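Marked as duplicate of an earlier ticket. Keeping the data here for the record.
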Amino acid sequence: MISAVGGMGTESNESLDLLSVFLTGIPGLEARHGWLSMPFFTMYVVAIVGNILIIAAVQENPALHEPMYLFLSMLAVTEVGVSVSTLPTVMGILWFDARRVDFDGCLAQMFFIHTFSCMESGVLLAMSYDRFVAIYNPLRYTAILTLPCITCMGLGITLKSVALMAPLPILLRQLPYCHTNVLSHSYCLHSDLIQLPCEDTKLNSILGLAIVLATFGQDSLLIVVSYVLILYTVRGIASGEGRWKALNTCVSHICAVLIYYVPMIGVSVMHRAAKHASPIIHTLMSSIYLFVPPVLNPIIYSVKTRPIRQGILTLFSCKRELL
């Protein structure tokens, strides 16, 4: 499949309006896309509905207007954003074999996927700080993490993510494209798009690496530091029951961190150490990274966190009363 604009080379950027890219479904399983659409669609429904229920439960229940649950609602917003960003192209391929995407649409999807992923990493870091404050200084917990403070943290995470990701599509749009514009996934990622231009993309690659280090690398390091401090603090708690209660409040967040970062590390390792592995393996790892956290996190928090579970049940009971 060739771009609608062959041999652009040094053509002006107006020609990009005619450029198309072609997405890839699940390699080797194209004939089964109809069947595969069912589990993918189910995952999207669970992810979007589950996270929206958490957002609604926190918003509607005053008892959940505490720092921990406000951060959880921020995490749910980012996961809805990631799911909605990938849904049109993934389901378009599985249902209608719609592989062609115009270039600007592809850049927009790339921007939103990476921005929401960056925001998710930032919120996980904020949640680790929340757990540290709750364990280290529980008496001043609500005095330190006030609503204005939490609002500023949320705005800071959003602005940082947008500011870091905005240059990526702008720089990509300045380059000439003259190759076969076929991407290796069902959605547009920066690591895929920088393979397409027929000019040097070193600046884009360096910028991409710098952004990864400034966001995911820094966030993961600070999360580890926060849990080292949490463990150090827990050691000072006299009773074994007290230590267990303190650590038990971190279990859901630890699960969310592992669900987010382990697949990300797996994808990174696969791209570098197993370049010649089957394409379906690369597709599977990338799908796990993007699809699994939004699906599992609302389930984990609903099962593990009793106030969230009760808040969701209250939502349904209120709806039943209205009917």
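See parent ticket for discussion. The longest helix spans residues 103-136.
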